Automatic annotation (TrEMBL):
Gene3D superfamilies: Winged helix-like DNA-binding domain superfamily/Winged helix DNA-binding domain (1.10.10.10). This is YafY family transcriptional regulator. It comes from Nonomuraea rhodomycinica. Residues 4-63 form the HTH deoR-type domain. InterPro entries: CBASS_pafABC_assoc_protein (IPR051534), DeoR_HTH (IPR001034), HTH_11 (IPR013196), PafC-like (IPR028349), WCX_dom (IPR057727), WH-like_DNA-bd_sf (IPR036388), WH_DNA-bd_sf (IPR036390), WYL_dom (IPR026881).
């Protein structure tokens, strides 16, 4: 740190990272004396950066609460972590427009060398996870829900169902879950009197209230969301016994696809399906012996699939 400007910026970075630091501590970290630290603090104040100096035995320097530092100061590792996080978020379908805007801002403030390295990372990095394009909820809705859940405050939602019906609901939120490119909120819905899951991109308004509540200890938002997705009202309710232990079935069938229950004959799979032909293909792909309980039409679909496979493998 041979240049005063560099040391002054380093002091600003230290104050950004800590609630407060003593003059002696700052001097040791910067490699200067305490008088120089006082001069740096005064210079920062002249530049409009509110560095507060507190005298006395336990005094020191700190940034005034609520101050947002311009520019954002990141180490190489921190900048790389931010870029990686934004690239992963973009692939997941997480707030696509905001992600692109944040990436553009980060690129503009990075030093030239690091900007080139980050650009190379962006150009060459790929993911095994397929890119997802899903509706993005309003950031304000996500943030308002998060604050209400943290503070245990009931909210009023204006919600549009998958059928287009619009309702107003009071919700005691238990948690937010990001799954397969979509945001969900789950909690106690006072309209139905049940634990329900709502897609956040279908929420047009969130109004925090004053009523408080407690989240049950047994609440598991991830499990609730995945279980509710398995109960989406598709055309056919399917029940199939997989003749394998429940633990083995659970490794192949995620909770967002179906519910699994242990039975004397194996694991009972319950789910809803729009296409019985597709359901037959899924069962065949599991590689487990199974017995169809319902619907009867699924047995026909399984036989039809078996015949197609036989027809494609002539002797």
């Amino acid at each position: 740190m041979s240049y005063p400007a560099t040391r002054m910026l380093a002091m600003l970075e230290l104050l950004q990272a800590h609630h407060g630091l003593g003059g002696r501590d700052l001097a040791q970290r910067l490699g200067v004396d305490e008088r120089t630290v006082r001069r740096y603090a005064a210079r920062l104040a002249e530049l409009g950066i509110p560095v507060a100096a507190e005298r006395g035995r336990y005094g020191g320097y700190r940034l005034m609460p609520g101050y947002k530092l311009p520019p954002l100061m990141l180490t190489d590792d921190e900048a790389t972590a931010v870029v990686l996080g934004l690239l992963a978020g973009r692939r997941l379908g997480l707030a696509a427009e905001a992600t692109e805007a944040a990436l553009a801002k980060i690129r503009r403030v990075l030093p030239a060398t690091l900007r080139e390295q980050a650009g190379a990372l962006e150009e060459t990095l790929d993911f095994t996870l397929a890119e997802r394009a899903a509706p993005t909820p309003a950031s304000r809705a996500v943030l308002t829900l998060a604050a209400a859940i943290r503070d245990r405050r009931r909210v009023t939602l204006r919600y549009r169902s998958w059928q287009g019906a619009r309702t107003e609901r009071e919700l005691d939120g238990h948690g937010l879950v990001f799954h397969s490119g979509r945001w969900y909120v789950t909690g106690h819905d006072h309209r139905s009197g049940e634990i329900r899951t709502f897609r956040v991109d279908r929420i047009s308004a969130v109004v925090p209230g004053t009523a408080s509540y407690e989240i049950p200890e047994e609440s598991d938002p991830v499990r609730q969301v995945t279980a509710s997705l398995a109960r989406v009202p598709y055309a056919h309710l399917v029940e199939v016994v997989l003749h394998v232990p429940l633990a083995e079935a659970s490794r192949r069938v995620p909770p967002s696809v179906a519910t699994l229950t242990e039975t004397p004959d194996g694991a009972l799979l319950r789910m809803r399906a729009e296409s019985l032909d597709g359901m037959a293909t899924m069962l065949a792909g599991l590689g487990f012996p199974f017995t169809v309980r319902s619907p009867r039409e699924l047995r026909t679909a399984v036989r039809r699939l078996a015949q197609r496979l036989l027809d494609q493998t002539p002797e």
